[in-house]
Amino acid sequence: MSDPISAFPVPDLASLPEDVRARIEAVAEKSGFVPNVFLALAWRPDEFRAFMAYHDALMNKREGLTAAEREMIVVAVSIGNSCQYCVVAHGAILRVRAKDPAISELVTANWRKAPLPPRQRAILEYATKVATASHLVSAADRQAVLDAGMTQDELWDIGAIAAFFSMSNRLANAIELKPNVEFQKIGR
Phi/psi at 115 (nearest 5 deg)? Predict the structure, then answer.
C-alpha cells in the first residue's frame, strides 16, 4: 500500500472473523466505502468487538440526546484532543444528522462561536471539560448541564461519550489513522 491508513498492520477483509467482516461489509454497503477506523481496529478482533459494542451503546440510543447532539459531542471532543480522523469523520456524520452542513462546519471551525442554542452549548462545554480536563470536573459543572435542561441520564451520556471518544482520539492519534477522502463529500 503506497499511502498506509495506519502505522499498524491493516488486515485483509477475507482474513477476518465472520462477525467482524460482516460488520465492516454492512458499513461499506450503507456508506459506499469502508471507513479506515474499521480496518485499523479489525487488526485486533476482540478489541474491535468491544469498541463497537460500547460505541453502539452510546451512539445508537433513541432517547435523551439527539443523534446530532451525540455527533456534536464527538466533534467537539475530537477538536479538544486534536484528532484529525475523528473531526473529519464525525464532522461528516454531523452534517447528515443535523441536516445542516453549515452548523457542522461552524462547530468544527470553533464550536464556541457557533450559533448554538444554550442546551447544545452546555453540552459541549461539559463534554470538552470531561475530555480535556476531567480532573477539574465539579458538581457545579454537572449542575450547569442539568440547569440547561438535561436529565441525569443525558448528563451521564455526555460524559460517557466524551470519555469514550477521548480514548478513541488517543488511539487514532497513536496509530496515525488517516481520514478517508470520501468523508469530504458526505452531507454536502
Answer: -75, 75
d(CA 79, CA 92): 14
Report pLDDT digits (tens) over 86-134.
999 999 999 999 998 899 999 999 999 999 999 999 999 999 999 999 9
pLDDT in tens, 5-62: 999 999 999 999 999 999 999 999 999 999 999 999 999 999 999 999 999 999 999 9
Q: Give the residue from 29, 3, 184 showing the smallest Cα distance to 13.
A: 29
DSSP result, 6-72: -SS----GGGS-HHHHHHHHHHHHHHSS--HHHHHHTTSHHHHHHHHHHHHHHHS--SSS-HHHHHH
Q: Is the dihedral of CA 23, 186, 170, 62 positive or negative?
A: negative
The b/e string for 156-172 (b: 16+ C-beta within 10 A; e otherwise) is ebbbebbbbbbebbebb
